[in-house]
């Protein structure tokens, strides 16, 4: 059973029990008031009728009081019945009927009261019917302390009983109306109270199925609102943790994929020069070709491929260092001087390609690893020299912006193909027109070095290639 129905059932049970108890109590009070009212009225009737009987018997002083009661009985009966709208019996001291008009159905009740009346006490009995009540008063007649007889009076109180029943019915209607109003109020109020709990339950189920975009109301300061806020906090934390796990999972996947590609690329890059070296060495050893020019070319090729293999191994060592994140000591470096020196070192190669390096360098001091940043600058400028096309100038600019020292190397060139540009900072990425000495590790190493300095390197593609390096001052 839902908590809402449990709550409503409990409240209705308490309400019904309370109404029953209240109804019984009110009925008892009203009935007691009615009976007390009847008793009080009959007491007045008893006093007045007793005085009337006494007066009639005392005026006839020459006769015995018992005899006078017999003689005056009929007159007394008529007087009492007429004046008090009741029925009346008069009996002697032996409880023998003298005169009376009480219906036979009530005489059995008066007979039960005989003993009490003969003992000198008044008795009132109430006889309830379906739609009315009759009161039977029995009391002894004493005149000058002489026991003369017994009078029984039966009076109908149907009107008073109807008033009593009407009052009970009105109270029942009021109670029923109150019950309906309270029930509707409790139902609506319970729905309002339990609605956030129901929403929270549904939200928890959705959260269990992986839906983290759920939202619930958190108005108010009660326990349910506090629970809703805590649930939202929990949802946000779980969502954040799941996103972190997914991010780390993707990183691991990319790392594993990168390692595999790196291994395949390394295998390929090592295999190419080794195949050439092995092939030429085998030809020289077997002496299959008797040509001194060929022997010279073979030795030169073995030397060039060995040199290439040596450089490749050195680059792989650098890559390995980058992966192991071995940092050198950081020092404050005059960036203007470092850039000018690097440009000066590359001027000879630029002149060889009929290119001119134009510098626009700003002052700036940055805490960096000087040799590594020099390596980045030389590599970037070297790429600009090798891939310049349709222009005679390479621009090297630097300036300070947003607390960053920014270096730009700009040259005219053919646009970089998309398949190369999209993964340009990955290892062993080379274009088809790269020379055979290129190993595709330069930009990868540059990117790793800049990231090691908490900086950023970006490339803008097009007919004008712009490499931008951001270093935090």
From TrEMBL:
Parts of the chain that traverse the membrane: 7-30, 168-188
Pfam families, sorted: HAMP, HATPase_c, HisKA
GO MF entries: phosphorelay sensor kinase activity
Major subcellular location class: membrane
Subcellular location field: Membrane
SUPFAM superfamilies on file: ATPase domain of HSP90 chaperone/DNA topoisomerase II/histidine kinase, HAMP domain-like, Homodimeric domain of signal transducing histidine kinase
CDD domains linked to this entry: HAMP, HisKA
Origin: domain of life: Bacteria
Name of the featured protein: histidine kinase
Keyword Transmembrane among record annotations: yes
Species for this entry: Clostridium botulinum (strain Okra / Type B1)
Protein keywords: Kinase, Membrane, Phosphoprotein, Transferase, Transmembrane, Transmembrane helix, Two-component regulatory system
Gene3D superfamilies in the cross-refs: 1.10.287.130, 6.10.340.10, Histidine kinase-like ATPase, C-terminal domain (3.30.565.10)
Catalysed conversion reaction: ATP + protein L-histidine = ADP + protein N-phospho-L-histidine
Domain HAMP: residue ranges: 191-243
């Amino acid at each position: 059973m839902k908590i809402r129905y449990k709550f409503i059932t409990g409240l209705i049970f308490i309400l019904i029990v309370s109404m029953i108890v209240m109804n019984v109590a009110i009925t008892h009070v009203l009935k007691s008031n009615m009976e007390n009212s009847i008793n009080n009225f009959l007491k007045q009737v008893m006093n007045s009728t007793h005085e009337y009987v006494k007066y009639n018997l005392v005026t006839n002083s020459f006769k015995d009081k018992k005899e006078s009661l017999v003689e005056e009985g009929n007159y007394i009966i008529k007087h009492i019945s007429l004046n008090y709208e009741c029925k009346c019996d008069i009996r002697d001291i032996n409880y023998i009927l003298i005169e009376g008009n009480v219906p036979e159905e009530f005489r059995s009740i008066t007979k039960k009261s005989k003993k009490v009346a003969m003992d000198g006490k008044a008795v009132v009995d109430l006889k309830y019917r379906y739609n009315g009540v009759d009161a039977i008063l029995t009391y002894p007649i004493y005149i000058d302390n002489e026991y003369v007889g017994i009078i029984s009076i039966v009076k109908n109180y149907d009107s008073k009983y109807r008033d009593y029943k009407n009052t009970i019915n009105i109270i029942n209607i009021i109670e029923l109306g109150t019950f309906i109003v309270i029930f509707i109020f409790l139902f609506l109020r319970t729905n309002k109270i339990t609605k956030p709990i129901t929403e929270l339950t549904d939200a928890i189920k959705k959260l269990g199925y992986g839906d983290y975009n759920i939202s619930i109301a958190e108005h108010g300061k009660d326990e349910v609102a506090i629970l809703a806020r805590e649930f939202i906090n929990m949802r946000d934390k779980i969502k954040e943790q799941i996103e972190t796990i997914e991010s780390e999972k993707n990183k691991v996947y990319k790392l594993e994929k990168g390692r595999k590609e790196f291994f395949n690329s390394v295998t390929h890059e090592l295999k190419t020069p080794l195949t050439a070296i092995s092939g030429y060495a085998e030809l020289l050893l077997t002496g299959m070709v008797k040509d001194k020019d060929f022997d010279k070319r073979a030795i030169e090729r073995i030397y060039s491929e060995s040199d290439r293999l040596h450089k490749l191994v050195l680059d792989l060592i650098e890559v390995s260092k980058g992966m192991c994140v071995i940092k050198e000591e950081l020092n404050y470096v005059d960036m203007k001087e470092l850039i000018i020196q690097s440009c000066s070192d590359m001027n000879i190669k630029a002149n060889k390609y009929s290119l001119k390096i134009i510098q626009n360098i700003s002052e700036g001091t940055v805490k960096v690893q000087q040799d590594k940043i020099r390596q980045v600058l030389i590599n970037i400028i070297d790429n600009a020299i090798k891939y310049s096309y349709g222009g005679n100038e390479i621009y090297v600019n630097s300036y300070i912006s947003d607390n960053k020292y920014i270096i730009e190397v700009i040259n005219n060139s053919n646009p970089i193909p998309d398949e190369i540009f999209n993964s340009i900072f990955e290892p062993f990425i080379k274009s088809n027109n790269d020379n055979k000495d290129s190993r595709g590790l330069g930009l990868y190493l540059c990117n790793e070095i800049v990231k090691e300095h908490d900086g950023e390197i970006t490339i803008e593609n097009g007919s004008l290639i712009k490499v931008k390096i951001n270093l935090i001052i």
